[in-house]
């Protein structure tokens, strides 16, 4: 019992640390990446190649003056960013980070918890994530913050629908399981789900961009119209939490896309590769190499997120709503209908 | 612990919290706080579903109620900017009528519970009741017709909303 608790605690600490670390270095990579795209140098003064820049930024955030507006609702003003950060970190719990590990005859899974409704848990946490932004924006008692919060939440609710329907199509392909672990394990031989669900992946990817409030969907914090959107009144580390949670969301949604559609910790000819170098199932090296493969996919997705941000201009608000309601939802329904039809003809569904 | 199992303890704590937050929904002065307390109440109820081994229902409860419906509530209330200065004060008559209709609602609820102990529950596979597969089979096979009727009801409500919300074209 004690050993189990310690093992889960260590796993939680690792996932927490990795999420924060990746988010911190995503901020640096974002600036470097935009510098490459715009033919600039980017931050290079703090440490070699600017590697200490995230630490410097974090330190700056901590030492800035903390302002809580006198007209704000103080409790909710503090609750907002905390809740946003909490929901951003909670999603990491159901993601299988690597293959099972056997130490001394005991099997340890590289996943914090394998609940049989993992996919729904993800959707649930995402839908509750709206509250952080809404509460923060409203409690600021500022019209720009309120408008930003309302934009953010209406955008998140609109895109959740198409996202949910594209996930249903994925679950149908995966044989009706809602456990992320089983979805990833099914892709260890044969093709990854992207081959069966190309349209579903495209819809999911667009919705993930919208859910993380990344450009071209960054209307909630559109500075040319709304000053800073829902975090206009925030300063110091509370602003830091909002900005940082966005990067964690980006990391986690990249991880989810890699697990759902690109086989997670599997890679092509993984079993043959492990055989060739003589690794047995349950070896720590298999877990580590698998995690490496998973992490590579995540980094590629993060780069695509940034590439899109520094390439595309921002949507107009009506275009955003049109895309969500008139294009993505009908497309995802079509995708679901085709998926169910094909699976029925293949004999995988019986009534 | 004190002769109760952990499940009973959890049930007690969750029930206490649910009722407490439920009362706070009614008694808090600020409507935004009311909605936030309602969110907490829904989380407690989701906890109850988990205790009854209905994971699917618990998570759907959170996604639908806490994640969608209450966000819309919050939306409306935030935009309306309700407070004592700007809102017209209710007369005594309205207050009495509101209290009476609330009391009648309570009466109906208690009345519907009266015969509840005579009902026998049909179990669909004991501990696996709340699992997605069993729930799907029950909804889409055994009770398909009532389920579809409910969806028609929702559709009617949706059409009504669109009709009311549509701009007059003339």
How is this structure best described in words?
The complex is a heterodimer of chains A (351) and B (170). Chain A is mainly α and 351 residues long. Chain A has one domain. In chain A, 66% of the residues lie in helices and 2% in strands. In chain A, strands 1-2 form a two-stranded antiparallel ribbon. In chain A, helix 1 crosses helix 11, helix 1 runs parallel beside helix 13 and helix 3 packs parallel to helix 11. Chain B folds into two domains: 84 residues, Four Helix Bundle (Hemerythrin (Met), subunit A); 47 residues, no CATH class. In chain B, helix 1 packs antiparallel against helix 2. Chain B is mainly α. The model of chain B has no long low-confidence stretch (mean pLDDT 82). Chain B is built from six helices and no strands. Chains A and B meet through helix 4, helix 5 and helix 6 of A and helix 2 and helix 3 of B.
Q: What does the largest sheet of chain A look like?
A: 2 strands, antiparallel
Physical arrangement of strands within the biggest beta sheet of chain A: 1-2
Task: Extract low-pLDDT stretches of chain A.
Answer: none
Radius of gyration of chain A: 21 Å
CATH superfamily of the largest domain in chain B: NADH-ubiquinone/plastoquinone oxidoreductase chain 6, subunit NuoJ
CATH level-1 class of the largest domain in chain B:
Mainly Alpha
Contiguous helical run count of chain B: 6
What characteristic shape of chain A results from the CA principal axes?
A: globular
Number of domains of chain A: 1
Q: What is the percent of helical residues of chain A?
A: 55-70%
Oligomer status: heterodimer
What is the overall pLDDT average of chain B?
A: 82
Distance between the termini of chain B: 72 Å
Structural class category of chain A: mainly alpha
């Amino acid at each position: 019992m004690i050993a189990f608790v310690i093992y889960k605690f260590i796993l939680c600490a690792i996932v927490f640390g990795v999420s924060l670390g990746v988010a911190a270095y995503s901020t640096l990579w974002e600036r470097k990446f935009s510098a490459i795209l715009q033919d600039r140098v980017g931050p290079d003064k703090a440490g070699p190649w600017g590697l200490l820049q995230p630490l410097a930024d974090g330190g700056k955030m901590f030492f800035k003056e903390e302002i809580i507006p006198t007209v704000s609702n103080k409790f909710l003003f503090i609750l907002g960013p905390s809740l946003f950060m909490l929901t951003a970190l909670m999603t990491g719990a159901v993601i299988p980070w690597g293959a099972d590990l056997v130490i001394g005859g005991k099997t340890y899974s590289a996943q914090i918890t394998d609940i049989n409704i993992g996919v729904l848990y993800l959707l649930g946490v995402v839908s509750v994530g709206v509250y952080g932004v809404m509460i923060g924006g409203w409690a600021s008692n500022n019209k720009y913050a309120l408008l930003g919060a309302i934009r953010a939440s209406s955008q998140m609710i609109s895109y959740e629908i198409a996202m949910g329907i594209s996930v249903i199509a994925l679950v149908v392909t995966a044989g009706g399981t809602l456990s992320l672990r089983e979805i990833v394990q099914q892709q260890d031989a044969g093709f990854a789900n992207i081959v069966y669900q190309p349209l579903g992946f495209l819809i999911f990817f667009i919705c993930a961009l919208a859910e993380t409030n990344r450009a071209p969907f960054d209307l909630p914090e559109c500075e040319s119209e709304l000053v800073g959107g829902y975090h206009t009144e925030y300063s110091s580390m509370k602003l830091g939490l909002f900005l940082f949670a966005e990067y964690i969301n980006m990391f986690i949604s990249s991880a989810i896309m890699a697990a759902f559609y690109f086989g997670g910790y599997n890679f092509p000819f993984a079993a043959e590769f492990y055989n060739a170098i003589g690794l047995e199932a349950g070896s720590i090296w298999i877990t580590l190499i698998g995690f490496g493969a998973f992490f590579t996919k995540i980094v590629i997705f993060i780069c695509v997120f940034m590439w899109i941000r520094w390439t595309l201009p921002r949507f107009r608000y009506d275009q955003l709503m049109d895309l969500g309601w008139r294009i993505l939802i009908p497309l995802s329904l079509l995708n679901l209908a085709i998926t169910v039809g094909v699976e029925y003809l293949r004999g995988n569904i019986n009534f | 612990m004190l002769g109760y199992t952990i499940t009973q303890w959890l049930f007690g704590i969750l029930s206490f919290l649910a009722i407490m937050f439920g009362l706070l929904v009614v008694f808090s002065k600020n409507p935004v706080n009311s909605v936030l307390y309602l969110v907490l109440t829904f989380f407690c109820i989701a906890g109850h579903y988990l205790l009854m081994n209905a994971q699917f229902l618990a998570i759907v409860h959170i996604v639908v109620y806490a994640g969608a419906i209450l966000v819309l509530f919050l939306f409306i209330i935030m935009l309306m900017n309700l407070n004592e200065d700007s809102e017209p004060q209710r007369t005594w008559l309205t207050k009495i009528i509101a209290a009476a209709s609330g009391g009648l609602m309570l009466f109906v609820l208690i009345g519907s519970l009266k015969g509840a102990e005579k009902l026998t529950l049909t179990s669909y596979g004991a501990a696996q009741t709340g699992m997605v597969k069993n729930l799907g089979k029950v909804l889409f096979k055994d009770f398909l017709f009532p389920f579809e009727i409910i969806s028609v009801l929702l559709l009617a409500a949706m059409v009504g909303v669109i009709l009311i919300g549509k701009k007059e074209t003339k």
